[in-house]
Amino acid sequence: MNKENIITVKNLTKTFGDFTAVDKLTFEVGKGEVFGFLGANGAGKTTAMKMLIGISKPTQGHANVAGFDVLTHAEQVKMNIGYMSQRFSLYNDLTIKENITFFGGIYGLTASTIRAKSKALIDELGLGKMADFLVGSLPLGWKQKVAFSVALLHNPKIIFLDEPTGGVDPITRRQFWEMIYREANRGVTIFVTTHYMDEAEYCDRVSIMVAGKIEALDTPKNLKEQYQVDSMNKVFLKLARNVD
């Protein structure tokens, strides 16, 4: 890629006893890229992401994220990224405003900055009448969109999204991807895991994990041409069969 790399991974490995969950991953992600990390449930996607965001130590290998080594400077990594887990990551018993205020404080923002960002976020999502609603009362799709916006409060260089559209309807999935594109156009790098193979089409490049290993990595167009199929789902099925 021509873009400056903001994530560099070399032989990243994670083992649990005799089980290898992530096996010698090597790849790079460019600044402002929408990078898809695809694979079936249990392929190792979440385990790999936890190492990249500094909350799980690699067994072997190296990774540099936002200019910092994940093993020796995990706290600096966390300060320069946003993260949204596959399980909803805000507090259901707080209102939308209260969640924004709480996480703004966690990120070290000033009170005035939190107020300004809170208003901008609520206006941008069209949630003015719902700002004082408990987050737990929101439909799942709205919860996910609020969580994504909150993860961007501190202007991170990279945002990691772990299965962000799981369980939401197709219209909300499309709206969520529109939000992803908007941030990528602003220069934010998006690292997204998903088991929805059709979402690979929305990414600049995708890696496909099978049984802890990256079995393919390229643009969706190139992968479909390489495997002579018309969809990313068929690419994945071919790769899975080859491994089996």
Automatic annotation (TrEMBL):
It holds the Pfam family ABC_tran. Transmembrane segments: none annotated. The keyword Nucleotide-binding applies. Gene3D superfamilies: P-loop containing nucleotide triphosphate hydrolases. Keywords: ATP-binding, Nucleotide-binding. It comes from the Bacteria. The keyword Transmembrane helix does not apply. Residues 7-236 form the ABC transporter domain. GO terms for molecular function: ATP binding. PANTHER family: ABC TRANSPORTER G FAMILY MEMBER 20 ISOFORM X1, ATP-BINDING CASSETTE, SUB-FAMILY H, MEMBER 1. This is ABC transporter ATP-binding protein. It comes from Arenibacter antarcticus.
